[in-house]
Design a protein that fits this description.
This protein has one domain. The termini are far apart. It is mostly helical. The radius of gyration is 16 Å and the shape is elongated. Helix 2 packs antiparallel against helix 3. The longest helix has 27 residues. It is built from four helices and two strands, in the order E-E-H-H-H-H.
Amino acid sequence: MTSNSPKSGGTTPAPDDLNAQIGVLTRREVEARILGPAIEALSERFERKQVLEVVRFTIVHLAQSQGGEMSQSLGGNSSSHLLDSLEYWTRDNALELDLL
C-alpha cells in the first residue's frame, strides 16, 4: 500500500482484487464494521465534526480510487462495462437486480 502524508489526503490504496473475491457489498460491510467503532473511539478523543470530515474525505477518495481501478480492470467505463461490473455487486446474492 502506498501511503501519503495525512496533509496530502491520507492513503492511496494499492490495486487489489478483493471485490472480485468477495464482492463489493460484502467488502463494504466488513469495512463499515471496522470503521464504525474506530469513528466512535476517535470522536471520544477529538471533535466529532472534524473526525467525520476526515472520514468522509477518505471514504470518497477510496471509493473514487476503487471505482477507477474497477473501470480500468474492466477495460472502460461505458454502460456495457457497468453491466460487466454487476457480477461484483451481486456476488452471493448481496444485491438482486431486475434489468429491464
